[in-house]
Design brief:
By secondary structure, this protein is an alpha/beta fold. The chain has 12 helices and 12 strands. The two termini are 21 Å apart.
Length: 363
């Protein structure tokens, strides 16, 4: 059984993908070529923003966003401790301090009330995460940011394609960042990422920064990175975006079916607020005895995963450079209880029934 089934998806897009790759091999523009340009234009239109600036990875996208906002030593960025390390890693890489605040116990996303209490004169940005495919409370976060004159960077590595009050993830903040890692809802066949913004100046700065700070050949007004996306990955995204809406609908249907089948089980299923849609990057439950549950699933040949067993404030690399604002008890408790089940658009009802039957027995 596959935790994420990329093979079935590839069969659907194989002919189009091979044609795109053949075209790329013929013209030979492998870095920032026509496929990258087409992908950026397509994704900007999809999200509903003026600019999409591709990057070599989702981590690079976050790093570029911080660099474009000129965040660095002495600055603080408020974020969640319940995420992949890249969220806070990039804050440390620019020399700033990640400030961790607790999360909402229902959505698992950053708690806006905790953000307010953590703002200081050194705060330069707020960096919420759309965890497990569900956007954070971006309107409330945006209002807090506006009151304090702060930009918001949305880490949408898991929520690209999700809707929040009728708007798409990545179009909800100053800069939205996503990842095209293969396991993401919209993934390529390597590393890739993108930044999204309506700000012309920021978009121009992002493009320069991803290409060694270059504004024209061999002229570098700022220090940048080698953060360019290659054409082969863009070709994969272009093949996949054609079926992405269908896959998002399938994820929503499968996620809702999981929750219905587990409604009376001894676990806590994902909560999707009104006016939100999740892309279910993961289908994540809370259970009481995770190790036993995972062992039972494993014995039945059913894969599972834990996102995330160690909160970011407890990571050795971040303990020295970050700080916590207030208690992080919700995040710490969830790190001991969450477990994710197989989730992808091609999960058939029979396989899902089997997963649920074994899980219910374990519970």
């Amino acid at each position: 059984m596959q935790f994420i089934d990329l093979k079935t998806q590839q069969l659907r897009i194989r002919d189009d993908l091979e044609q795109r790759l053949s075209t790329l091999l013929d013209h030979g523009q492998y870095i920032l070529g026509p496929e990258v340009t087409e992908m950026e234009e397509t994704l900007a239109a999809y999200v509903g923003v003026k600019h999409c600036v591709s990057a070599a990875s989702g981590t690079d996208a976050l790093l570029l966003a911080l660099m474009a906002l000129e965040i660095g030593p002495g600055d603080e960025v408020i974020t969640t401790p319940f995420s992949f390390i890249a969220t806070a890693e990039v804050i440390g890489l620019v020399g700033a301090t990640p400030v961790f605040v607790d999360i909402d116990p229902v959505t698992y996303n950053i708690d806006p009330a905790a953000i307010v209490a953590a703002i200081t004169e050194r705060t330069r940005a707020i960096l919420p995460v759309g965890l497990f495919g569900l956007c954070a409370d971006m309107d409330t976060i945006g209002e807090i940011a506006a009151d304090h004159g702060l930009p918001v960077i949305e880490d949408a590595a898991q929520s690209f394609g999700a809707r929040y009050k009728g708007r798409r993830s990545c179009g909800l903040s100053t800069i939205g960042c996503t990842s095209f890692f293969p396991a993401k809802p919209l993934g390529c066949y390597g590393d890739g990422g993108a930044c999204f913004t309506n700000d012309e100046a920021l978009a121009s700065r992002l493009r320069e920064l991803r290409n060694h700070g270059q504004d024209r050949p061999y002229h570098h007004p700022r220090l940048g990175i080698n953060g360019r996306m290659d054409g082969m990955q863009a070709a994969v995204i272009l093949s996949k975006i054609a079926i992405f809406d269908e896959e998002v609908e399938a994820r929503a249907r499968i996620g809702a079916r999981y929750s219905a089948l587990l409604a009376d089980a001894d676990c806590i299923t994902p909560y999707i607020p009104a006016d939100y849609d999740s892309v279910y990057a993961q289908y994540t439950l809370q259970v009481k005895d995770r190790e036993r549950v995972q062992q039972t699933l494993r014995e039945a040949g059913i894969p599972s995963a834990v996102y995330y067993p160690v909160t970011l404030d407890q990571q050795p690399a971040l303990r020295e450079i970050g700080r916590s604002a207030g208690s992080l008890e919700v995040a710490h408790a969830l790190a001991e209880r969450v477990v994710s089940l197989p989730m992808h658009p091609y999960l058939d009802p029979e396989t899902q029934d089997r997963i649920v039957d074994v899980l219910r027995g374990a519970l």
